[in-house]
Design a protein that fits this description.
Layout (H helix, E strand, L loop, with lengths): L2 H13 L2 E6 L18 H4 L2 H4 L2 H10 L1 H17 L4 H9 L4 E6 L5 H4 L5 E3 L2 E8 L4 E5 L2 H15 L5 H9 L10 E5 L10 H11 L2 E5 L11 H7 L3 E6 L7 E3 L2 H13 L5
Parallel strand pairs: 1-2, 1-7, 2-3, 7-8, 8-9
Antiparallel strand pairs: 4-5, 4-6
Helix pairs in contact: 1-12, 4-5, 5-8, 6-12, 8-9, 10-11
The structure holds nicotinamide-adenine-dinucleotide.
Length: 271
Amino acid sequence: MDTDNWSTAVSALRNAKHVVVFSGAGMSAESGIPTFRDADGFWQRFPPEEFATWSGLWKTALIDPHSVADFVLNVVDPIARAEANPGHRAVASLESRTKTTVVTQNVDGLHQTSGSTDVLEVHGSLLEVIDSLTAQVVRRIDRSQLAQIAEALRKYAGRQGSTDSLLAELGKYYPLDWLGRLRPNLVLFGDAMAEPAWTKACEVVDRCDLFISVGTSGEVYPAAMLPDQAAEAGATVITVDPQPSGDCPLPGKAGIVLPKLIHDAFAAVAD
Ligand code: NAD
């Protein structure tokens, strides 16, 4: 760890009036939720042109529904089982020290599980059902319900369950015309960002004085422009990631670096 960067980060956190924590998939890696671009090659197994858009998913489902079930299972199952990790808890603990807004690209709800109260989910949430015509969230589902969905998907992907029984299970959460209107609140490639979260995120990024980017490769736009936007607005930008970039990189895992950073800034154990 570069000691100058560490000192800069500690001092910026100690003096911050409004912190934005900007999280990506790496934030939840230690909760057992795989990232998409790390070595396990998620996008090699499920090519984005077939699986990363709603239209691609529907088309692929007509040709090979079992592969779509397998894809959705690989997204849903780890999130159904996940618990918050020390990185999430460190972020939540910041709220007692300074005004903190979490802007997350994650759809796993783990920031809220760990106690963060000001969370903007700019790519939506797997724990919400949205009416795609009105863009309104119509209901929330919990992790035990997600686990039941995962179980039905597992059977179907393993060719042990019928299409009817899978649709009956999904219909409990996405009733009537699941294929068209009620669907998980997920922003896929090419979709508009989740609102009002995205508009609010852009506003808080302009107002914050410290921006902590955690576990994001910076390849998914427009979210990836937020660190530059924060820097241009005058915030200190620090990056926590095993492979960090930017002016103040802090290499390492979120679950280790964030509790230590908060400890060193406030001389209190954060986790
Ligand atoms: P990404 O997969 O492109 O990049 C992950 C980043 O996390 C990499 O830079 C990697 O070095 C870093 N990382 C890996 N382990 C880490 C750890 N323990 N601590 C800190 N960093 C770690 O992720 P992205 O930039 O977020 O973009 C992918 C898109 O898919 C986003 O919208 C993302 O939120 C979504 N996604 C969400 C989840 C989730 O909700 N948990 C999981 C996978 C993908």
